[in-house]
Amino acid sequence: MLVGKLVFNQSDRTEFVFRVFTTATEFQVLLFLLFLLLYLMILCGNTAIIWVVCTRSTLCTPMYFFLSNLSFLEICYTTVVVPLMLSNILGAQKTISLAGCGAQMFFFVTLGSTDCFLLAIMAYDRYVAICHPLHYTLIMTGKLCAQMLVGALGLALFLSLQLTALIFTLPFCGHRQEINHFLCDVPPVLRLACADIHVHQAVLYVVSILVLTIPFLLICVSYVFITCAILRIRSVEGRRRAFSTCSSHLTVVLLQYGCCSLVYLRPRSSTSEDEDRQIALVYTFVTPLLNPLIYTLRNKDVKDALRNAIIRKAASEAS
């Protein structure tokens, strides 16, 4: 079994350091405060969505079940990356062990892949809701929703485990390797291996196609049917409401899949390590931050539920 071939003992003394954003102290402090603020906003925004979905009975539907799980994934996803990143911004470069780097890569790929699969599941949910509204409750049962969520997580775990295990069978020459990134992502770690990596790059492309291309194509097909169904709605208000609900999801999809495709599906000859790091900032900070903003600002049900929850909380504290 591939997992059994993990050779963290191939070089127990091998350590990694992350390349610093800047060596100027004043800019280090500024970046630290900026990224900390963004991280706290991500935690607060996504926690608010989970809280309001769990406490409001009107939001106990498959759509909001998936939305709350998406918010939970975003919290875990950024927490795998940001605290370590913040600790490396200030002061001298801090090392991360080979095993620590492998663990971060495994959880990062697992959570990111689950995120992509969940967005595809949410597109299917919108397809059933708009194209088959009379059968929606019969199709999208609680059991099916849970099964799809567990299936997405299980597939992500399997792919991530195999990919991480394959990469860390590679030898890394030297005691101290510098990763031109702020996390142990797959492409920058592969570049540090002192062995032929063509097979590993091919596996990375296959995994990227399974995680990014296929779900994105399924989302596109879903939205072709959704658009056709919406255009058949006679009510202007009905069309507006349907488009509003779907546009929130589509905005998140384009951000997530677009940025990830630029990093994982571009040919290696046309990629730049610095560009990859800049793009990674988008799907590490911007997408998780925009998720709660997009779904609350463009979703009347969530806005009303949040407003009512805040009013009730303020009234209970006043009394």
UniProtKB/TrEMBL annotation:
Transmembrane segments: 29-52, 64-86, 106-124, 144-168, 202-231, 243-265, 277-297
One cellular component (GO) term of this entry: plasma membrane
Top-level taxonomic group: Eukaryota
Coiled-coil portions: none
Location of this chain's protein in the cell: Cell membrane
GO MF entry, a single one: G protein-coupled receptor activity
Listed PROSITE patterns: G_PROTEIN_RECEP_F1_1, G_PROTEIN_RECEP_F1_2
Bilayer disposition of the protein: Multi-pass membrane protein
Gene3D superfamilies: Rhodopsin 7-helix transmembrane proteins (1.20.1070.10)
Protein name (record): Olfactory receptor
Gene: OR10Q1
